Amino acid sequence: MAIAAAALPMLPGAGRAAGSAGKRLVAITRVIEVNGRPAKVFGLIGSDGRSGLRLAPGERFRVDLANEAGTRTIVHWHGQLPPWTQDGFPWPESPPIANGAVQAYDYAPVPGTYWMHSHQDMQEQSLMTAPLIVHDAAELREDRQEIVLMLHDFTFRTPEEVLAGLTGTSAATAQAMAQKMEKTAARTVGSNAPHASMSSMAADAPEAGMSGMDMSRLGGMHMDLNDVHYDAFLANDRTLADPEIVHVERGGRIRLRIINGASSSQFWVDLGELVGRVAATDGHPVNPVASSRFPIAMAQRLDVLIDLPETGAFPILARVEGNDRQTGIVLTTPGARIARMAESAHAVPQVDNSLEARLTAVEPLSARHADVDRTIELAGGMKPYAWSMNGEYWPQVTPLMLEKGQRVEIELVNRSMMAHPMHLHGHDFQVIAIDGRPMQGAVRDTVLVMPMGRVRIAFDANNPGRWAFHCHNLYHQATGMMTEFRYQGIAT
Question: pTM score, two decimals?
């Protein structure tokens, strides 16, 4: 049921008229099969019929996003650096897209492995996500077969039911909490008062009912993992009961683009008998690091280069941290026998920063003293289920005010017993220290801060606007773990 883009109303924030030359992306509902059961989910489908978008080297991001999902939505181009009103975050200045409407986008994209996801309510959990691949001429000259592996956690429950179970509230209250992003107004941002619904939620949360939580040990203290119990884990929308089989050449050369699109799950990527080299993180080149197993936090991406043996079937598994569940795809050369794989195996440990500590950027930030140096404390817990940044809960937060041209350093200090994958909109940053150890680490847009750990990041303030900074665990974000970086002079 395609709708002509030119016939749809255009919303504020676009840089050109809808319907002009460019790509078309449609937000839809669709049905997939998960372990023999039909599931209604969202999708973001390009004009080629595939999930997401793929841009040629040098091609502008000229996209008409048509909303045919039956409800309002807004799509964030995760890791890209557009003008702030095209970022896909529901500020009052860039409201959600009505059903049946179209929004036009036009900016110069950053090459690499990126992704897109809804920032409306908790639609991300219901698979309003897709790959965003911006090709680079140098990568194409490598003549490697490109394979995209997108990971999700899946539940037959609604996201509101999941959040209600975590917080001990009703699904209606949980839905109201999730909708607070789009209701943020300039007059509310800047208050230090806790959010009213957050305060009442925290007071009413029960002491039990966290049956989906696995526990590990850290220095004699309990560490929280996997606070949501999922029905399945998906690799390119499929489970290991019916995995995607990717045909490859004998002795083929592969660029595996791995995207963790899960809402509340982290994975170890297990290449089995293969050895891969991480060549890029979050779209940005790094000096290669070789291994057969790599951790990947929520919202992070890894480009892994693999040179295959002459023949065989090669499972690429994503194993859920802290338990025995797994998903994945299979690479197979012609005529190879494909063995059936179980959806569980032996348990693996918590995802950590062991890879992060080995990464170095190919193009690091220039040496420079910080103009702005701030500490942000991450706090919260399971009982009550509430998560904060510097003691504040979104949307009642105090923005960090920036000026264009400043070098900014942020010390992220995790005071909680759960890891937090922290994502900054509209900027990339460099990891410059882990637990106080200086480094010239990877350039990223999402970094994992371990329980009771510290990570220091640096970036140049070169993209004026209003920008969200938040934990990419969807349920941490929904219960308060988000703040704003705002440039001086931006009217609200």
Answer: 0.90
